[in-house]
Specification:
alpha/beta; UDP-N-acetylmuramoyl-L-alanine:D-glutamate ligase; 6-stranded parallel sheet; 4-stranded mixed sheet; 16 strands; globular
C-alpha cells in the first residue's frame, strides 16, 4: 500500500435511493420524475468523493445480505478499492425525497445488528489496512451492537500506527471519539447543539459566537481541530487551536444538501494528506460542499461547479487572544 492512501471507514453503509418529485402528496400517490439508487452512507459518500478527486482510497466497513452484495458490486463497477467485512444481517437502505422546491425529506433505516465476532474480524482487517495509510476517515453512524466508544478505539489504533484521523459522527460516539485525539472532527450544527445541550442559532440563523464556543469545547475535549458545517450561508467555521476561521461560498447553491457534509469531510481529509494550509484546506472544503449540493445524488459533484465555487470562497482568520 502506498503512503498516500486514505482509508475510509463506513461501519453502517446503505443503499441510498433518491426520488425526485415536483411536490409530495402525503397520503396520496406520488410518481417520481427520476429515481437514483447508489451505494451510500456517509463513509461511502466520502470515499466516492475522494475517488472523484483522484485520491487513493481504501474503503473499509461492514456489509451483509443481498443489499450489501449489491453495494459491493456497484463499488466494483466504480473501480473503488474496498475491503468490506461480511456480516450475517442485511445492510440497511435509505430513502431521500427531493421536491422541486428543493425541500428534502430523508428516511433512514436503523443499522443492522453486528456480532462481537464480526466486529473483531473487522478490527483485524482495519489494523492491516492502516499499514502505510496517510490518513483514516471514520464517518457515519454505528450499526446495532458496537459500543459508543468504537470510533474512539479505532482512533487510538490509528494514533498508535501514526495515522491521523478525521471523525464525522454524532452523539456519544462523537464525544468519545473527539476525546481520543483525532486530527479533525467535523460536526454539523445539530450535532453541536446536541452536545452543548442548547440552541446555537437564533431567528437570523446560526449564532456564530455560540457555535465557536461549542466547537472550542469539543476541541478542548481532545480533538486537534473542529470544523463546524451545515451553517447555511455562513459556510464553515473552524477552530484550530490558535485560530478561528470562517470559509463562506459566494452564494448558496440550490439542490440536494444530502452528502454536502460528506464532501466537506472528503476535502478536509484530502487537504490533510496533501499538507494544505488551513486557509486553503477550508476553501476547498467549502467549495466542494457547495458543489455537492448542486449534484442530484450524494457522493457526486460537478468539477465545473467545484471550480466555480472555489474561485469565490472567502476565508477569514482570527487569532485566539
Amino acid at each position: 500500500m502506498r503512503h498516500s492512501v486514505i482509508v475510509v471507514i463506513c461501519l453502517n453503509p446503505a443503499l441510498d435511493i433518491t426520488y425526485q418529485v415536483p411536490a409530495v402528496t402525503w397520503g396520496g400517490v406520488n410518481r417520481p420524475s427520476a429515481v437514483y439508487a447508489r451505494p451510500g452512507g456517509k463513509g461511502l459518500n466520502v470515499a466516492r468523493t475522494l475517488h472523484a478527486l483522484g485520491a487513493d482510497v481504501l474503503l473499509m466497513g461492514l456489509a451483509g445480505g443481498p443489499t450489501g452484495a449489491g453495494i459491493e458490486d456497484a463499488l466494483a463497477r466504480l473501480e473503488m478499492p474496498t475491503a468490506l467485512t461480511p456480516i450475517a444481517a442485511e445492510t440497511r437502505r435509505t430513502l431521500t425525497v427531493v421536491e422541486g422546491t428543493g425541500a428534502t425529506t430523508a428516511f433512514n433505516e436503523p443499522g443492522p445488528p453486528v456480532s462481537a465476532r464480526e466486529l473483531t474480524e473487522f478490527r483485524l482487517r482495519y489494523e492491516k489496512g492502516l499499514s502505510g495509510a496517510a490518513a483514516v476517515v471514520l464517518s457515519g453512524s454505528l450499526p446495532t451492537g458496537p459500543a459508543a466508544d468504537t470510533y474512539a478505539t479505532l482512533i487510538e489504533t490509528a494514533t498508535t500506527a501514526c495515522v491521523p484521523a478525521v471523525l464525522d459522527t454524532h452523539g456519544e460516539a462523537l464525544l468519545l471519539g473527539a476525546a481520543a485525539g483525532p486530527a479533525i472532527v467535523k460536526p454539523n450544527l445539530a450535532e453541536l447543539e446536541n452536545l452543548a445541550g442548547r440552541r446555537l442559532s437564533n431567528l437570523h440563523g446560526p449564532d456564530l459566537a455560540a457555535v465557536s464556543v461549542a466547537a472550542d469545547q469539543l476541541r478542548i475535549s481532545g480533538a486537534q481541530a473542529v470544523v463546524a458545517a451545515s451553517l447555511g450561508a455562513d459556510g464553515l467555521l473552524a477552530v484550530t487551536g490558535d485560530s478561528y476561521w470562517r470559509a463562506r461560498p459566494a452564494a448558496a447553491m440550490a439542490g440536494n444538501p444530502t452528502g454536502a457534509g460528506d464532501a466537506v469531510v472528503a476535502a478536509l481529509a484530502h487537504g490533510l494528506v496533501l499538507g494544505r494550509p488551513w486557509d486553503d484546506r477550508l476553501r476547498h472544503a467549502a467549495a466542494l460542499g457547495a458543489a455537492a449540493v448542486a449534484a442530484p445524488v450524494a457522493g457526486e459533484f460537478s468539477k465545473t461547479d467545484y471550480a466555480s465555487a472555489l474561485s469565490a470562497v472567502a476565508v477569514h482568520r482570527n487569532e485566539v487572544s
